[in-house]
Amino acid sequence: MDKIIFFIFIIYTLILFIITYLTARKANSSSFFQGNKRSPWFVVAYGMIGASLSGVTFMSVPGWVEDRYFSYMLTVFGFFLGYIVIAFILMPTYYKLNLISIYKYLDVRFGKFSHKTGSAYFILSRVLGASLRMFIVIFVLQKFVFNLWGVPFELTVVGFLTLILLFTMRGGVKTIVWTDTLQTTCMLAALIMCFVMVAKALGMGVGDMFSTVMHSKYNQFIFTDATSRLCWWKQILGGMFISITMTGLDQEMMQKNLSCPNIRSAQKNMMTFSVILFFVNFLFLVLGAALYIYSAREGLALKGDDLFPTVAIYHLAPLAAIVFIVGLISALFPSADGALTSLTTAFSIDFLNLDTRQDMTERKKIRTRHWVHACFALLFVAVIIFYYYHQDKHLIDILYQVASITYGPLLGLFAFGLLTKRQVRDKVVPIICLIAPVVCFILNLNSKAWFNYSFDFELLVLNGLITFLGLLLVSYPQKKTI
Asked: Which end of the chain is more exposed for a tag (fewer CB within 10 A), N or C?
């Protein structure tokens, strides 16, 4: 089985390199950063599904059902509300200013210190979040394939990142838009096939399994206890601001949208993507409930991130293991290629100013960009190895907690810029954006003991609010705004 899985991985990787070769020919800086502004909106929308779900969703959302039941669907509804804000408030601003890096908006609105602070927080958040998404996939492949061959985890990580580095180095966004399409197709196909095979293992048809899940204890959406993390309004509010920050204020996700020819195409992409994502997440939850029902029937003590891979690889038909691994690999590459490209873009544009440098030839700019790309790949290697030795809870929980801390300042900065006409004392902005997440981190650790209150996704909103109020304290009126 391990040899079959490895063979499938090789075939899949070869297909990615063929797509890379076809899309990266005659690529230049505009291709890398903006896809030459020619990406079809429906291709971007479809590919973004895979980029948004990632290996963390593929593994952790089914395993999360035991703890959160179906309350996560309220979070997903919040995502949809957030995507409306992105499509009709944020993206028109980005297109109006013709941005490559969305954090240039902060430079235009407030000044260079705000600009650098916003970009730095994106880099921090994306490195931590994307590394976590990659880790879970590489860890499963290590456990079920490479450990059997005696390959050290560190070598596996280096090998994966080298492959990802090679097929993203030249084409950038132009390549990723098309590779994401392949990856989304494989991931959704794997989800549907696993759905069918779990139903068969339960001795049911798909319709019967769905009915069984809907009549099980897991079919609980709304919790009203305000002190609980699962309280309904926390889920909706948190989901809305998670999508605004992790998509609308995220260079990786917006870079793909900004590669569309115009704002109307980008808005069609965003709204189409948001509707499809709603139903896909629901399928993951139903699959998770079915897996728990199967696990209980078979007397398996499985829970959390171990549930899906263990059942698929060891307890279902051999085909299920292959399908699961294909889906997981499909979840790995969108997490890595888009992250590497967006980080390279943010650092190259926001800190090295490669888009405006007149003292560098195009060849030197490309060489510099390649070095930045390689350095971020090495950073990913280090962070993934760190996660390997410090794993102790649901990875999707960790991902959202990281986002709540690191994206809060971005939320506050963009909200202040868009909702007020005031100017800020630019040099003080980095201090405010440091204080807000530190306060939220301390509150998150102690809120249960101090206030008998547990934070969930709404911690992100509080983080952004503290940042917003801090900016208000150091602001002054201005007559001219962008």
From this structure: C
- Mean pLDDT of all residues in 56-75: 83
In a 13 Å sphere around the CA of 21, the CA atoms on its Cβ side amount to 6
**What are the backbone dihedrals phi and psi of residue 425, each rounded to the nearest 5 degrees, phi first?**
-80, 100
> Would you say how long the chain is, in residues?
482
Can you tell me whether residue 353 is helix, strand or coil? Answer: coil
Q: Parallel, antiparallel, or unpaired: how do β-strands 422-424 and 475-477 relate? A: antiparallel
What is the DSSP secondary structure assignment for residue 350, as one 8-state letter? Answer: I
Quick one: residue 35, left, alpha or beta (phi over 0 = left, psi -120 to 50 = alpha)?
Answer: left
Q: Of 156-170, 257-271, 273-287, 383-397, where does mean pLDDT reach its minimum?
A: 383-397
Q: Among 176, 139, 3, which residue's Cα sits nearest to residue 59?
A: 139
Contacts of 478 (CB under 8 A, 6+ apart): 421, 422, 423
| CA distance from start to end of the chain | 59
Residue 423 or 161, more confident: 423
C-alpha torsion angle, residues 442, 447, 448, 449 (rounded to 10): 80
Token couple for 57? 């969703």
Q: At what angle are helices 72-85 and 263-298 packed, to 10 degrees?
A: 170
Please state, as a whole number, how many other Cβ atoms lie within 10 Å of the Cβ of residue 408. Answer: 29
What is the 8-class DSSP label of residue 477? E
Q: With left for phi above 0 and alpha for psi between -120 and 50, is residue 304 left, alpha or beta? A: left
Is the whole-model pTM more than 0.85? no
For position 32, what pLDDT does the model report?
A: 52
Domains of the chain: 2-392 (1.20.1730.10)
CA gap 179, 333 in Å, rounded: 9
d(CA 267, CA 263): 6
Per-residue pLDDT reduced to its tens digit, 309-365? 788 878 887 777 777 777 777 766 666 777 787 888 888 888 888 877 778 887 888
The pair phi, psi for residue 418, each rounded to 5°, is: -85, -30
Instruction: List, as one string, the DSSP characters of 40-68.
Output: -HHHHHHHHHHHHHHHHHHHHHHHHHHHH
CB proximity list for 54: less than 8 A, separation 6 or greater: 133, 331, 334, 335
- The predicted-structure confidence for 214-234, as pLDDT tens digits, reads as follows 998 888 888 888 878 788 888
The answer for residues whose C-beta is within 8 angstroms of residue 178's C-beta and 6 or more apart is 19, 23, 43, 47
CB 406 within 8 A of CB 121: yes
Of 323, 465, 361, nearest in space to 404 by CA: 465
Torsion of CA 269, 274, 275, 277, to 10 degrees: 120
Q: In the structure encoding, which two tokens stand for residue 54, read together? A: 């990632």
pLDDT of residue 31: 47
